[in-house]
Structure formats: structure tokens, C-alpha cells
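Design review, sub-item: ligand-bound model
Attendees: FS, YL, KQ
YL presented the inputs for the adenosine monophosphate complex:
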Amino acid sequence: MKQKLFVYNTLSRKKEEFIPLNAPHVGMYVCGPTVYSDAHLGNCRTYISFDLIFRYLTLLGYKVRYVRNITDAGHLEGDADEGEDKIAKKAKLAQVEPMEIVQKYTVGFRDVMRILNTLPPSIEPTATGHIIEQIELTKEILARGYAYEVNGSVYFDVEKYNKTQDYGALNGRHLEDLLNNTRNLGGQDEKRGKLDFALWIKAKPEHLMKWPSPWGVGFPGWHLECSAMSNKYLGHQFDIHGGGIDLVPTHHTNEIAQNVAACGKNPATYWMHTNMLTVNGTKMSKSLGNSFLPEELFSGENDILNKPYSPMTVRFFMLQTHYRSTLDFSNDAMEASEKGFKRLMNAYDLLPGLKTSAQSDVDIESISNNCYAAMNDDFNSPVLIAELFECSRIINSVHDGKAKIDEQNLEALKKLMQTFLVDVLGLKSEAAANDELPNVLDFIINLRSEAKKSQDYATSDKIRIGLQQIGFQLKDSKEGTTWTKI
Ligand code: AMP
Ligand code: ZN
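KQ shared the predicted structure:
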């Protein structure tokens, strides 16, 4: 490894040298989606960011075990034990099994991740597949005196924990401060303290997803699954724990408390958080009603959009901003990204045809060093992209006969573009992206069939007409739907 890698640690609030516990092995846990609806563009931003991190660590020679869970039970509508289970609520509305909801949105999530060219994680464990581990962890926390049982539910005792530990450390807040700023939330009559949270929740008779436990029939609290699954697959201590920055105050703070209470250790050395994708400055979120789906971008089917954008343009748009900065969505920004992406890819496509000279006007080694330096500085993809634009300027100059490049520098340039543009940024040329077109269309056609099945003919027509407008004719028959280019 040429230079040291520095990553920003939310816990210490500074950049720290990356020193894995067990190099060359690296353990990385990223909180995955709650599969009760389609992943919106904001969710995709977080997973594209961790894909970049996964890809770069792999390039550096680390053997990364990347665990990204699927939340398929226990995530209530509110972050703090309030409301219904999100998946069960959707299942009741649609009059289907909760697992049908889980299956539908897990498949959809994987499709979108593949279309956006994110690499699959090494393990994708589910909350419902790890109920036993969650029960065991709850028993451990109870045995160590950091939790208490009331009427079939088990709660974590935050004030007791804070006597020896710093509960608000990740968020940089003192307990008194948190206590003063917390409303009374779900299960309050049973909880000893305002900040206490549920490890296990007693199920009401009508609750759909429930399991037997030493405390009666119930289900795990949302924060518990990540502690149990990271423990199981990465051990009591591993290197990176990540997610969106919105997970810091509650989900990750509680996860740390659970792990420390059960195992005496903060599970991760580096806590990494991506900033939010915003629309007009407001976080994109399903509950705020300002979210839209990646497939709407691919088809252009959303009133906010002037036109459709290819998956690789969407990926490039995300990577042009550093993962710790907010990224505001706008048509102008998307159009600029489309142009920038095309400029880079056109240059990349010219590479194989470039002619070499005896002398060279360019020095690729210094650019290559800059690329590593950018990524070693907390995965600074916008600075990396600026270096790649410099490469595209060189490629165009050589192509136009305005600059000379020798054999050695051309080989270095080809290697650099392959390494950083393709392997690290995960961008594919338009031609290669076009190979994905049938997959993208099949994906959109499936969404339309689902809309039709649930008698949402307005959406089904919108998709058909939208595809027609951008040059694709759908034909419905008994065998299903086919498309042709018009
Ligand atoms: P959820 O399915 O709501 O649990 O979210 C899945 C992941 O997406 C979490 O890591 C969130 O922090 C992240 N996330 C949610 N909204 C946004 C957003 N607007 N921008 C970036 N990441 C987000
Ligand atoms: Zn989590």
C-alpha cells in the first residue's frame, strides 16, 4: 500500500488512520433497508457510498467481509417503540402475508442495486432469520443487569448503563441533554426511564410476526437485530460500522449500548455515516412524501423530472459529491452529471485507439498518485473525479494530435482509468450500460404488472405512456408483456 488511508470516524469526530484489527481481513457492517417499500433514491445514495468504500478497500488488497442486513421484522413506525410494525402494516393493507411484502421489496432492492452496479455484500442476513440470536443477546444483557422485564417486554436501562458508560458518545450529547429533549414515547408506562428502549416487545394478539421467548410471545426491537447479526458474522469487535447519518442518534447509539452491555465492547473501530440526499434542501424521505424511486429516474416518470437519466448517470451524480456532504437533487445537477459522465466515457472509449510517440508530454504517475491521495483522504470521490477529468483532457489532446504520449505512460493511463473509473467508481461505458437496457425494461414492466394486479391502472398507464414517449412500445398478451423499440 503506497499511502496511508484515513477515514472520518463519527465517534471521535476526526479523520483517523485506518488500521484493521486483523489485516488483511476487514469486517464491515452496514445497516440495510427495511423492506416494506421500494428503496428510494436517498437510500440508494447510502448504499452507493458504501459500495465505493467496499470497492476501494478491496483495491487496496483487503479481504472485506461486507455484511448488509435486511430488516424484515421489528422496525416500528417510530424510532422509539411507537406505532405498528412497518411490514405488518403494509401486509394488512394489501391483504397478503408479511413475507410476501418482504419478498417483493427484497427482490426489488437487489434489482435496483444491480442496475446501479453496486457489488453484492458478502452476507445479507435477515432479522427474522436471527430471532434466536436476538433472544440470546437479550438474555445476556438481562444477566449483566442492563435490562429489565415488565409484563412480557424487555427494556434496556439507559440511565444505569450511563453510570459507567457514555450513552450519547456517538451523537456527542450528554445524557441530561438527551433527557431534556426527549418526548415521552411508546411503552412509557412500563419503562423506568424516558430514554429506555425495547429489546423485546410483547405481541398483542393481532400482531402478525411474533415468536415464543422466555418472556412470552413477542418480537425483537429494531436496534437489536444489527447487534446480534454483526456479533454473529463479524465477531464482538470489527472494523467499520456504517449507515446513513440519520441512524446516529437512536439506532446506532442503541446498538453500541447493547453491544457494550452484552460483550463489554463497542463493536466497531470506525463508525462511518453518509450524509443525506435532499430535495430543495429537505431530506428525501418516504414519510415526508418527497421521495422518488430510481426507476422513476430511469423512465423519467415523475413530475419533478425534465427527462429520464441512465443508471450510470445517477451513480455518477451521487459520486460527484463526497459521502459526508449533503447532496441536493435537481434537474440542473442531473443534466450536468449526464454531460460530465459522457465526457469521461467518451475519453475512455478513445483510449484503445491512441497512438504512442517516442517522447511524452504527460506524466501519468503523478496523476495516479493524486487519485490514491484523494481516495486515501476519507474516500474523496469528487477530487478523484477531478483527476479523471484531467485524464480525459489528456486523452482528447493526444487523440487530436495536440499532445504526445509514450508507450509507458499510455499503459499507465489505461491502468489508471480501469482501476479508478471502472473498478473503484463502478462506472460502465454507455455501450456496456446499454447492455443492461433489457434488464431495466423488464424491471419497469414488472412494476407495471404489479400496479395492474393491485388495480392501480393510473400508474400502469403512466408507465406504458412514459415508455412510449421515450421510444418503447409495450405489448400485452396472455403470456405477459413484451417491448419493442419504436
Ligand atoms: P431505511 O430503509 O429507512 O431503514 O433506510 C435505509 C438506509 O438509507 C439507512 O442507512 C438510512 O440512513 C439511509 N437513508 C434514508 N434516507 C436517506 C437519504 N435521504 N439520503 C441518504 N441516505 C438515506
Ligand atoms: Zn442497523
